[in-house]
Amino acid sequence: MGLLDILTSIKDRAEKFLNEKNVVTDFLGKVEEKTGIKKKILAFGAVSVTGLYLVYGYGASLLCNLIGFVYPAYYSIKAIESPSKEDDTKWLTYWVVYGVFSLGEFFSDIFLYWFPFYYAFKCLFLLWCMAPMSWNGSQVIYNKVVRPVFLRHEATVDNMVSNLSGKAMSAAENLTREVLSNLVKNKALVTPVSPVAQSEAKSLPSSSTAASSSKTAPSQPSDERPVRICHD
User: Which residue intervals are annotated with compositional bias (Basic and acidic residues) in the record (predicted)?
Assistant: First the structure.
């Protein structure tokens, strides 16, 4: 496939997208009604302005990430809803490559950030990965890089994931068991006394209280008087 065929394929894809019923085409249709400018020219102008903004504008990183996410996410949802599985594989491949690229960018962004026109090249790379052709970037990178590395280390990764999942389940079970035992112990320590037992304890005086009351009680004077004996 030559360069002319690639450009023709991209043009056909763009025209098909502009003829579909979606949010973008609805917006372009309203602008066309008010201004009289055709949707194709409006779309070309929007693409040109976006390219210039990626080179000179502020917040180019956010715009670039939106371009690499919104369009593929839209067609991924359509692929899920369609009965065909070929488009599912296509967009799954794109998301795998996108994830690998994002992971590598996380560690190298501090250096690539100062590279001139970095976000413009990044946007072109993402557009190549989602391009409607058989040898787009996602297919090439997956078949040449991701798939060989995955097949080489698949068994090791599976064993590692299995061991980690087993250890995680064991740790979760031990933690749950320990928490439950602590809850049971705390509940036993703070169990309140029933009201009936409290009333019975109040009605029965203790032996020490009775003894102290007997010691402190004053002695009562005797009413008996001495008998006087008279002698005749």
Answer: 222-232
